[in-house]
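Structure catalogue
Derive tokens from sequence
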Amino acid sequence: MPELDAYRAEADRFISELDEEYYLHYAGLKDRLELEEIYERHSDLTELERAQSLGAAVDGDRGVRELWHFACEGYVGKLTRGHAERLAALEAELEVTVDGEAIPFRMLRPTIANEPDRSRRERLDAATWEATEEHLNPIYLEAVEVTRNAVPALGGSSYRDLYERFGFALEDLAAQCRDFLDSTEELYERSIDRALRAELGFGLDEAKRYDINRMIRSPQWDEGFPGDLMVPALRTTLADLGIDLDGQANVHLDIEQRPQKTPRAFCAPIEVPDKVMLVIQPIGGADDWRAFFHEAGHTEHYANTSRDLRMEEKRLGDSAVTEGWAMLLQHLTDEPAWLTRRLDFPRPEQYAAEGMLWLLFFVRRYSAKLLYELEFHGNGGIEGMPKRYVELLGDALKIEPSPANFLADIDEGFYVYSYLRSWAFEAQLRDHLRSRFGTDWFASREAGSLLQELWAEGQRPTADELLHEVTGAKLEMAAVADRVRESLR
């Protein structure tokens, strides 16, 4: 239909301009995140009437459903763009004083992770959540109210109901998450208690959230993950798969140090597949390497996506697919064989077991997050949600989170649904690659050819469909539990 093709073309421009704006701001090249002009330039894409007409035209066509999904999120995004701009400006400008030292808000969590003194970690943690509660949460609350008021006109009785209409099987995944939490609870408690005692000198019963930040930072492994080897390690890993990173004219590495650059790696697919930005400040350390390889997975997926796909198949679709590819490269940094090959790494089996402990931690955390967000995005009130946030995440992790985080911890668009399914997708696909190409599959050009063939599919198939196409298996969270048990046995 010509009108749909015109809509696709303009939507592609809109997303491209947004991605470029986010890139410029979070890469430290622009002081402020300025979205209003972009939304105004493409205002017809996100008009309520356009979203409603696309919703009425779905009729079983997945492509049109994705466009409806996009139009609805764009409509809500237009209503809340001022909130997003204010939040980004606050995060970039806000400073917090701890022990007489002024610390940029965006550097608080990295500072906690790098702080060896526990009492100072506690003070930094308190300052983080005081600033969040005082400065950010009022804006988050305004945005939530605006979003909830917008949903009925888009065709949903609640935010949760709307996403179920988009095709999100939320309750099915929630049931799998409850099973995952139950089946891994004993293993989790035993494993993290042992790790805490070994690294910090006390057990799970005494641990606080700021201790976990320090543990995840894994400072004892820093020497094995130097910052100056991050990019070379990615370059040689891709070369082993038959991919020439330097020869990819559509991939742009931004590794410069800038004062306002976010410390976390990210990928900005400005043009898919023609201009994909991979951004990092290479600090070094295990956590930095994980984040860099994760974003490199996104980068290669978008950079290898076929130009012949429709916009929604390149840009939209099931986010668990691109997150799965990101997880696949990220978890190379937990592979003993990869560590030995790339870094001549000492005690790779011990480090790999620790990596699986953190996989278990995060999948349990996100399982609880899904259950929390399902409650939050129902039709109930918000007053009791800080308490429910603490109850659900605290029960999953056995460590109490800050109630001040009950809004900041919610990702837009039920992205938690994609993350959880991406972990299952990655675990099952990795098993397939190992059985087909051997434990050193990451050094096989045949495996690299298969990956490029699958990356070319973009976002056309769902993660479930792609996994079944390659392996014949059904996507299941239990696969993550099996992988963790194998490593932590």
About this structure: The first strand starts at residue 95 and ends at 98. The chain has a mean pLDDT of 93. The chain is about 65% helix and 5% strand. The longest helix spans residues 118-154.
